[in-house]
Each structure stands twice: as structure tokens, then as C-alpha cells.
Write a sequence for this structure.
């Protein structure tokens, strides 16, 4: 089915700083798009619904909504708080019903997941992860998170993957302004050492203002390599995608690849590690749009589920 024939889907990439919203069918067709600053839940959700109402009036009805949200979130469909953002550290957003108001207003099926699960889904459908299963996507930005696809399905369990809080050895960082982990929950985790805010606190400058030869990058790559190595050894993914604002540093992927090879120390004798690391650990094929396009894929999945249920 071509993009012109596919039903329109409303997509929401819900972030702690901004909500990116669009209506379309995938990478080849977005008919409307906007960015909304994340303020209070009431103001932000109202702004989202106003945008979607306007897009519906201009471009016609959409068949489903897909939402990829910052979390933690409740993904259990039978739970009384399904569709809620739960124990987030984002002030004012704890225990916020994100799905309910939009589903009630627009009366369409809603696909809901974490922002990073949405991102891995987008990359699996249209980006650098096509044909790769299992697939891991890690975003390194304001926070660190990860999404996982196994056997064609997004990985859920007791909650959802919280890759950003994998425990890792402290980085060298002897010249850092602050050496302690910045995570309020853990003493030694990926997010607390290598996220954008952690880099600022540890080194006194934002990531984009640090030159490629700054010692911070040895620090960051060390931490991320430890985390990725653990994921290789536990999930055995076909490919790992590293995205997010911090990963815009073009030299960082190469640093991490070399340290993964060092940490594995010859243990995994597979072509992906020994000869194809440049195509094994890669940047996102969809750039910074992985999450938004993944939200479209979530909406398409919710629509398929509704249609299948009708046929039974």
C-alpha cells in the first residue's frame, strides 16, 4: 500500500522538554507537524489536542494515535493506570494520564509505549534497523534510555527496559569538575555519567561546546562502551543504534566501538564484532525523527489490532 493509500496516523513524541506532534503515514508523508514546549500536563495535553483538532479539520480524520512518552510509564493494558506517566522525576508530571484524554476526545485506537521503544520501532520499520532482530536503540541526550525489539515485538516485562540505569564502573574522569554520578537514584549508572546534564555537571560545559579531543569524550565513551558490551552479552542483538543529542559528536561512535572490542577481548568470534563493527553499532537512519516516526508505527499497530479484533 502506498503512502497515499494508507490511513493518516497522529503521532506524539512526548519528551520532558518538548512534545513533537505530527500527522502522516511514515517518513514519506507527514501532512502536519508542530513542536510544543512541555509545561504543565494540563497545558501541554491541551496544546496537543488543539493541534490534532486543527490537523484533522485541515487534512481529514486520522485513524489512530501513536504516543511514545518519557517515563516510567504504565504499559499494562489491564491496569487501571494504563497510559499514565508514573514515577517520573519530571516535576508535576508524576501519575499523569496521557492516553485517556486523547482517546476520549478523538475516539480512535491509541498505541502507547516509551519514547525509546517508539524510536527502536521507527528504526526497525524505516531506518537503520530494518531486518535486524533483536534490535537495540539507545538515546543519549537529556537522559539515557533504550528500546528493544525481540521477535518483531517491543520488549515489555514487569515494566519496560531501563537501559539508562544499567550500573557501570565509574569512568576515569580525573580532570572532571565533579566526579560523582549525577543520578538521584543510583551511584554508578549510564545516565548519571554520560547524559547531557551529567556531562555539564562533570565537566563544566555542555557537550556541544567540548572539542573532539577533550578528555570528557574518553570518559563518556568508556561508560557507554561498558553499557553496550553488557547488552551485547545479554541480548545478542543483530544491531545496536546509538542516537540522541550527545551522539551528534561524530567521533563518539568510533571511540565506543573500539572500547567494546577491547572489553570483549576476543570472546565473541562473530563477524559483527570482529570485522563489521562499523555497521553493527551505528547512528540512527532516521536521525532525530526516530521517535516521532516510531509513534506513527505505534499508531499503525494499534489500528491493526483493532481491525483484527473486529474480524474475530
Amino acid at each position: 500500500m502506498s503512502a497515499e493509500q494508507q490511513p493518516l496516523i497522529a503521532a506524539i513524541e512526548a519528551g520532558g522538554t518538548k512534545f513533537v506532534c505530527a500527522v502522516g503515514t511514515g517518513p514519506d508523508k507527514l501532512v502536519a507537524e508542530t513542536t510544543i514546549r512541555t509545561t504543565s500536563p494540563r497545558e501541554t495535553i491541551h496544546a496537543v489536542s488543539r493541534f490534532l483538532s486543527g490537523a484533522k479539520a485541515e487534512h481529514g480524520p486520522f485513524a489512530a494515535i501513536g504516543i511514545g512518552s518519557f517515563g516510567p510509564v504504565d504499559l499494562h493494558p489491564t491496569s487501571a493506570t494504563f497510559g499514565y506517566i508514573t514515577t517520573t522525576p519530571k516535576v508535576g508530571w508524576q501519575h499523569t494520564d496521557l492516553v485517556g484524554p486523547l482517546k476520549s476526545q478523538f475516539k480512535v485506537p491509541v498505541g502507547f509505549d516509551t519514547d525509546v521503544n517508539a524510536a527502536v520501532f521507527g528504526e526497525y520499520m524505516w531506518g537503520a534497523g530494518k531486518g535486524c532482530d533483536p534490535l537495540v536503540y539507545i538515546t543519549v541526550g537529556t537522559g539515557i534510555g533504550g528500546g528493544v525489539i525481540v521477535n518483531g515485538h517491543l520488549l515489555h516485562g514487569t515494566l519496560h527496559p531501563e537501559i539508562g540505569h544499567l550500573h557501570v564502573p565509574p569512568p576515569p574522569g580525573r580532570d572532571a569538575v565533579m566526579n560523582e554520578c549525577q543520578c538521584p537514584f543510583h551511584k554508578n549508572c549510564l545516565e548519571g555519567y554520560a547524559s547531557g546534564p551529567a556531562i555539564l555537571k562533570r565537566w563544566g560545559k555542555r557537550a556541544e561546546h567540548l572539542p573532539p579531543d577533550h578528555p570528557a569524550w574518553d570518559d563518556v565513551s568508556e561508560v557507554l562502551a561498558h553499557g553496550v558490551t553488557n547488552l551485547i552479552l545479554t541480548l545478542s542483538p543483530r544491531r545496536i543504534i546509538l542516537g540522541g543529542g550527545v551522539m551528534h559528536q561524530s567521533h563518539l561512535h568510533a571511540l565506543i566501538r573500539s572500547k567494546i572490542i577491547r572489553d570483549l577481548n576476543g570472546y565473541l568470534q562473530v563477524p559483527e564484532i570482529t570485522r563489521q563493527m562499523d555497521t553493527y553499532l551505528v547512528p540512527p537512519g532516521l536521525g532525530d525523527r526516530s521517535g516521532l516516526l516510531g509513534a506513527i508505527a505505534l499508531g499503525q499497530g494499534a489500528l491493526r489490532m483493532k481491525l483484527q479484533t473486529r474480524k474475530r
User: Anything to note?
Assistant: The chain has a mean pLDDT of 94. The longest strand covers residues 18-26. The chain is about 35% helix and 20% strand. The domain at 9-115 is CATH 3.30.420.40 (Nucleotidyltransferase; domain 5).
